[in-house]
Amino acid sequence: MREAVTVPQPKMYGPLGNLPLIDKEKPSLSLGVLAEQLGPIYRLTVPGYSGLMISGHELVAEACDVTRFDKFIYNELENVRAFGGDGLFTSRTSEPNWKKAHNILLPTFSKQAMKGYHPMMIDIAEQLIHKWERLNPKDTIDVADDMTRPDLPWIR
How many CA atoms lie within 13 A of 5 on its CB side? Predict the structure, then answer.
């Protein structure tokens, strides 16, 4: 029988949780400071999120070991699976179609492929910034709409 482990958590600030401890200008450094204070595994709670944070290359490498993962199919995808079969998003990790789809998509997300996307991403980001700069300061910017427009190159 395993012994229960208490995971440390920084001071809570009511409904804000640990949010006041995160420097909005340097959030990653704030998380590093918390790791130095609390250890390589700690709980972080902010409005809308509560989860475990891990740090240190050994722990991160272990947590990112894909051989330990098994995909969970949520209820909505189970419903899609009922009529759509076992595709990329609806197949279980142990099923042959998951492996086929995974292998087809894998090159698209390789380090080399990502390097190729970088110039295009910078160009699009600069275009969006210029578009937003031309707006009236009182106008609202719908970032989600701008990021999912069908005329963006990565959606074609």
Answer: 8
Looking at residue 138, its amino acid is K
Q: What share of the chain is helix, strand, coil (3-state, %, to 5)?
A: 55, 10, 40
Task: Extract the tokens encoding 65.
Answer: 């070991």
Please give the span between the terminal C-alpha atoms of the chain, in angstroms, as a whole number: 53
The beta strands (E) that lie in the chain are given as 41-46, 49-54
Whether 10 contacts 42, CB under 8 Å: yes
62-82 pLDDT, tens per residue? Answer: 888 877 777 778 888 888 888
Distance of CA 140 to the CA centre of its chain: 26
Q: Give, in order, the Cα–Cα distances in Å from 140 to each of 129, 131, 152.
A: 14, 12, 20
Q: What is the pTM of this model?
A: 0.51
